[in-house]
Write a structure and sequence with these properties.
InterPro entries: Transp_IS110-like_N, Transpos_IS110, Transposase_20. One of its GO terms (biological process) is DNA transposition. This is IS110 family transposase. The protein has 350 residues and is an alpha/beta fold. The protein folds into three domains: 113 residues, Nucleotidyltransferase, domain 5 (2-Layer Sandwich); 101 residues; 113 residues, no CATH class. α5 runs antiparallel to α8. It is globular. The model has no long low-confidence stretch (mean pLDDT 89).
């Protein structure tokens, strides 16, 4: 994006919260604060903010923290009005550490930070991307909860009375869950045995229901991905969950300005750690979107197993002395480049 000072008269920084939004209008050339306001986080409050901005300048941009969270409603309202919206992930820590903290001050910092940053990003799109984001979150919650229930079943079986343990002896976890779901309580059992059986049955049925819920979410994800970007599913190692994760991070053409920026977002771009005469050192990038990083890792594991060219690459790099982890990091960087080029330079559904 072009330097804001060249295209707008003011930047409106907004610090978003659940019930209120605080905004500050900052002069784009001087950085001076022109006016501040706090409104309710409602449709009327959003309209009040726009009217507030209309009193000061037509050429303006909005710098909003949390465009995908507390600021999502305001962002949608502004985009419908064709306002220029800038997404701020978080203020620079160094600027906050030594200063006071309040909502109006955070709004001022947001506006000034938008003016100072060399590159600015727009908010992620709604529509298909937001639908995938919601489905991924719901599926992840169901999978995690199902895993918790399964582990609880396993632990309870280990500590269960012998007459109950005997029914599970020699069984793997899937069979244990099936057995537990069909248990019945007998009137002759003592309270410990009866309670253990009741809880085992409840946990097993919960795990089964959650697994079915996760499967339904995955079906819905597959439908959206096939409709939006079927070309992603044609890539080796890219299934519906991986594709949805990549699409949620990328969002739309032009949001991420280069493949290097996409790699940095994914946490697969090594961070230079040069010192003095040593100019070839790098350290691991443990930042970025960890869900996207995990998706790339899944692709790498699949290709190492099934893709001959990748296996040949692994063999060559191993002979050069690279460790398995180092090789996987290199592969993730290459895959990030390929996916970015595919997403940016191939047609998408209108």
């Amino acid at each position: 994006m072009t330097d804001l000072r060249e295209v707008v008269d003011v930047v409106i920084g907004v610090d978003t919260h659940v019930h209120t939004h605080s905004a500050a209008i900052v002069d784009a050339r001087t950085g001076g604060v022109l006016e501040e306001i706090t409104v309710e986080a409602t449709a009327d409050g959003y309209a009040q903010l726009v009217a507030f901005a209309d009193e000061h300048a037509v050429l303006r941009a909005w710098a909003i923290e949390g465009t995908g969270g507390h600021g999502a409603g305001l962002t949608r309202h502004l985009e419908r009005d064709q306002e220029v919206v800038i997404e701020l992930d978080r203020p620079e820590r160094a600027k906050r550490r030594h200063g006071a903290k309040s909502d109006p001050l955070d709004a001022i910092r947001a506006a000034r930070e938008a003016l100072s940053r060399p590159r600015l990003g727009g908010p992620r799109s709604g529509g298909d991307r937001q639908a995938l984001s919601v489905l991924l979150a719901a599926r992840r919650s169901a999978v995690n909860a199902a895993g918790d229930a399964q582990r609880q079943v396993f632990s309870l079986v280990i500590a269960a009375p012998e007459q109950i343990r005997a029914r599970f002896r020699g069984q793997k976890l899937p069979a244990m869950l099936k057995t537990a779901a069909g248990l019945r309580v007998h009137a002759s059992w003592d309270v410990e045995t009866a309670t253990t059986v009741t809880v085992l049955r409840s946990l097993a049925r919960r795990a089964h229901a959650l697994a079915e819920e996760a499967a339904e979410h995955e079906k819905a994800i597959r439908v959206i991905v096939r409709s939006w970007r079927p070309d992603l599913l044609e890539q080796l190692g890219v299934g519906p969950i991986v594709a949805a994760t990549v699409l949620c991070a990328w969002s739309h053409p032009g949001r991420i300005h280069s493949e290097a920026a996409f790699a940095m977002l994914a946490g697969v771009a090594p961070i230079p750690a040069n010192s003095g005469q040593i100019t070839t050192r790098h350290r691991l990038n443990r930042y970025g979107d960890r869900q996207l990083n995990r998706a790339l890792h899944t692709i790498v594991l699949s290709r190492i197993r099934y893709h001959q060219a990748t296996r040949d690459y692994v063999a060559r790099r191993t002979s050069e002395g690279k460790t398995p982890r180092e090789i996987k990091r290199c592969l993730k960087r290459y895959i990030a480049r390929d996916l970015y080029r595919l997403l940016e330079h191939h047609p998408v559904r209108a």
